[in-house]
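User: quick one, sequence for these tokens?
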């Protein structure tokens, strides 16, 4: 199974990804997570992309494609894989098509999650993530048992530098300009299925799960 998770910032891609990988065993490849890990570890890549990500802009296609194809070549992908946050524009989608064809693999489905803009802003501004294990919470929708502390590993919860309201609006604008053309791109080849991300996390997941069975 080869899946793409598509949708605006805050639509719930990461939240649904956790459930999909737990139930279907696919390898999760999130470009955002990979970039953030590199920033945290202060690698050469991390230093290159730190400012770009904090400002809400996109990292270059060249760097992103290389990172994704390296990862795909080095993973055991028996149960398949799920790309989260990639592709992010038509150039990246074409590069992925080429990679799939070269490797005789076929895209199964694009899971497109959408939600209203004010819902996105409130989710992004209220999101908190664990500094250590990356588990995601929300100050009102999904609060931890102890305020500011991760339920999973007990570490401190922090706010992503790109999660303030101003940067969130900028990220949504970039999504509209550069990423939303992918909806039509994948619709045309009959691969896209839309899910209403305004609904509760579990409700969205049940619909996704049914569509993958
Ligand atoms: P990335 O990490 O991909 O971020 P994003 O696409 O902006 O998505 P988010 O992580 O903000 O949101 P999400 O949809 O995963 O929502 P979540 O489930 O966490 O990218 C970050 C940056 O990296 C980019 O800006 C760019 O700079 C760079 N980058 C990444 N990929 C790139 C690429 N391919 N090319 C170039 N640059 C790239 O949910 C959000 C909050 O809402 C959480 O608190 C959650 O608990 C809550 N929530 C979620 N769903 C629900 C629900 N249904 N009901 C109630 N609350 C919910």
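Assistant:
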């Amino acid at each position: 199974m080869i899946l793409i998770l598509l949708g605006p910032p805050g639509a719930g891609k990461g939240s649904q990804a956790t459930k999909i990988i737990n139930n279907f065993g696919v390898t999760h490849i999130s470009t955002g997570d990979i970039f953030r890990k590199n920033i945290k570890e202060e690698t050469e890549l991390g230093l290159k992309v730190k400012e770009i990500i904090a400002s809400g802009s996109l990292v270059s296609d060249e760097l992103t494609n290389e990172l994704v194809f390296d990862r795909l070549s080095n993973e055991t992908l028996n149960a398949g894989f799920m790309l989260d946050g990639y592709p992010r524009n038509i150039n990246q989608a074409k590069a992925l098509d080429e990679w799939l064809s070269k490797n005789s693999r076929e895209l199964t489905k694009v899971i497109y999650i959408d939600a209203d803009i004010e819902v996105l802003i409130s989710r992004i501004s209220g999101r908190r993530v664990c500094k250590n294990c990356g588990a995601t919470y929300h100050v009102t929708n999904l609060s931890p048992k102890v305020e500011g502390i991760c339920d999973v590993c007990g570490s401190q919860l922090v706010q992503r530098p790109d999660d303030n309201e101003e940067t969130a609006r900028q990220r949504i604008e970039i999504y509209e300009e550069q990423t939303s053309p992918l909806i039509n791109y994948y619709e045309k080849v009959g691969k896209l299925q839309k899910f209403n991300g305004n609904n509760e996390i579990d409700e969205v997941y049940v619909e996704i799960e049914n569509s993958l069975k």
